[in-house]
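Q: Fold this one first, please.
A: Sequence and structure below.
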Amino acid sequence: MDWTAVTVITSSEAVEAVSYILTDEGAQGVQINDAADFANLKPGKYGEHGEIVDPATIPHRTSGAAVTGYFPAKTFVPELLPTIRQRVAKLHDYGLNPGEDEVTSAVVDNQQWATVWQKYYHPLRVTNELTIVPQWEDYQPTQKQEKLLVLDPGMAFGTGTHPTTKLILQALENVIRGGESLIDVGTGSGVLSIAAKQLGAGDVQAYDIDEVAVRSAQKNLDLNPVAKDVKVGVNSLLDGIHTQVDVVVANILAEIIVPLIPQAFANLKPGGYFLASGIIDDKAAMVRRKMLDQSFVIDSETKMGDWHGIIAHKPAEDEE
């Protein structure tokens, strides 16, 4: 089956918002070409045959980002383009810079997509313990503590190099000690749930508002035996969820984290951790303030490029 690719030229800070817009309009997967990703890459095995290559020599964007959504052939894309353009332009209203705000479309066949994808998607060590590995790669851990997150995100391109992903995976590595119950909000590809299980978490629930994302997450969970018992389903944030867990984790936009904060607090045990990423520079103070207003204690805040990751906890009974 051929696909219609709709590409939005935008800014790095608007990548996640534009990805959401394309998915919400019916895209079955999203490819991101972000100059910020290459800025964080070090020389590694990026060659066609696994040879060491300097990322600076790989053709890539030098500024901003191109976000491409893939729509099935049955979708009449020309009807969607005006709506997509309008929604991207309105990102100004949410304090995000839409960048060039250019929207184009083109037909792409499956074989062309697969060739490009597999050329650039290789195993990548993203934290001290975690390595993201595409399903088609025969990769074995090189160190005793190394744990693999096997992914086949279908039409969704990703290398795990985006700062928001790295920040939240590092936060999980810092917090998980073994046996924790955890909720993954906005699970997407399921990578955070898989990482949590690899790090030793116990009961894990994963939710996403998008049915396509839930199906993608389930496929990736199935590729990782350690995550076979993760419960994944469709839900808007933590609406209607009433439980008590040790950890709530979310890698989503700051504007979506804000309404999640009181829900996370209500669903955490005393002493439980709230890990949040996807927070652009100029939204960090707002998120921090909302957390403190909710009585969270902020344990640490890390930054990578323009992005922030926060580890906070609900006060234990002896802290109150």
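Q: Good. Now the second chain.
A: Here it is, same layout.
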Amino acid sequence: MKTMKALATGAVLLTSVMTLQGCLIVADGYSDDGEYSASDYRKLEEKNRRMIAALDNQVTLDYVRNTMGTPEFADRVTVDGERYDVLYYRTQRVESDGNTTRDECTPLVFENGKLVGTGQLALKRIPQHD
């Protein structure tokens, strides 16, 4: 009787293993190689768009970095004694290649540490330097 029970248990186990062979379980979050999934990027982009839309002019550079986290890119230039910082946060997908590029980000422009505008129009208002 024990042998029959052991054989039945083994058969069920073997069938279960053979049935699961080739199954793939996908969950949101990081993959095995530490990369974001497409769902994670959509959530991040939506969160960044919402946060940028809620920013008031004149908030500080430090406030934005502390609130929104590390930007994808950051630039700094001084023109005629005025310091301009530009933080780029990912807000839309252009190409689904796993790489974030500047055209997938919204620039936040700060003059002397205070937010003066967002987007390409604000970026174009930075005086050109020589």
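Q: Anything worth noting on the second one?
A: Residues 2-20 form the longest helix (19 residues).
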